[in-house]
Input
Amino acid sequence: MTQHVQADGGIYKSDSLHRNYDTCIAIMALAKANTDGRYDEILERAESFVKHLQWDESEGVDPSDVRYGGAGYGSKSRPDLSNTSFLVDALKSLGRGEDDPAIRKALIFVSRCQNLESPYNDTEFAAKINDGGFYYTVAAGGETKAETTPEGGLRSYGSMTYAGLKSMIYAGVEKDDPRVKAAVDFLRRHYDLESNPGVGKQGLYYYYQTMAKALDAFGDPSFEDAQGTSHDWKAELRQKLAELQQEDGSWVNSTTRWMEGDPNLVTAYALLALSHCRP
Output
């Protein structure tokens, strides 16, 4: 991994189109391995790199701009909730908390990607659906990977709602905050281990690992759905992943969008999910 440390502090292959993702994932791995401090300098420079990718005053963007606080694939690219959630994950792995300026900025962007009219979200999309879920990005005219409504609403879907919930928790937003309550209510209505709610089997394993991270951060050992059924979500997700594992030990998604036809990536997602599902 360290052979891909670049002069700008990022950790990625020189031809990578996913420099934020790559560096954030490397940060999380190296932070785990850094018990003796051997990666301190690399991590310091990598942190600076991903923070530089975040849209803020350094690009002449102020908090009124819907791009503010978000991160995209690389320098100057449109920010989205997925890249931003990985940025928050990486900073958390370095011990950064709710007082970190980059996490505070990220929370502004995250809140604007929620289908919820609130003091934290006055964008044009806030009230068009208002179901408490999250979508891909509010920037550049807005985009969801689910469907849009005839009125131009951006439909919420499972993986982004778990990403939004997790990011808010990591940013110190409490359970009784209207944003968290609305997101949890959406997820209770759409509790599902068979699909990524809103987009079917697309991104299913990304959904599993994001779900596991979010519910682990939420902190409740059981999760009650909208019908009042209590789920031991860790046991249920372990069982589902056991059912889906291939004979060679890998996992792969037959719905291949977002690179989920690659067993290397999908197996990594499955292992990340399982790491949050220990009994």
The beta strands are 223-224, 230-231. The chain has two domains: 1-190, 193-279. The two ends are 31 Å apart (CA to CA). The longest strand covers residues 223-224.
